[in-house]
Amino acid sequence: NYSAAAAAAALLLALAIASLVKAWLLSRILGERIASWRWALVWATAPAAVVGWAVTRFLPEWAELMLGIPAILLTYGWVIWHRGFGPEDRVLFRRNVGG
Questions:
Q1: Residue 47's CB: how many other CB atoms inside 10 A?
Q2: Which of 12, 40, 48, 67 has minimal CB crowding within 10 Å?
Q3: How crowded is the C-beta side of 88, counted as CA atoms within 13 Å?
């Protein structure tokens, strides 16, 4: 049971180090301070973890994969969209940016 958790922890560590290196490199190139931590990630991870826990606790295994993964992703995406993006960020996702 711990091998899957170890792989997830290794991925977490690799992504965290890559994010820090990217922020450091970008700050060197731009000459400005770059924040690599976004609190919206914490706000999105907490409800997604609760949904994941509830799915594994109350649904059968086949439904965990079929319904649980989309439910976790939708929860995470919804919270990121509402808490993580401001109005100026949402402009990037509009189709008619110029008009």
A1: 14
A2: 12
A3: 0
- d(CA 34, CA 56) in angstroms, rounded, equals 38
Report the alpha-carbon distance of residue 29 to residue 20 in Å, rounded. 14
DSSP string, 51-95: HHHHHHHHS-HHHIIIIIHHHHHHHHHHHIIIII--HHHHGGG-S
Q: What's the pTM value of the predicted model, to 2 decimals?
A: 0.67
- Residue 40, judged by CB atoms within 10 A of its CB (0-12, 13-18, 19+), counts as middle
Q: pLDDT at residue 72 above 90?
A: yes
Query: What DSSP assignment string belongs to 9-29?
Result: HHHHHHHHHHHHHHHHHHHHH
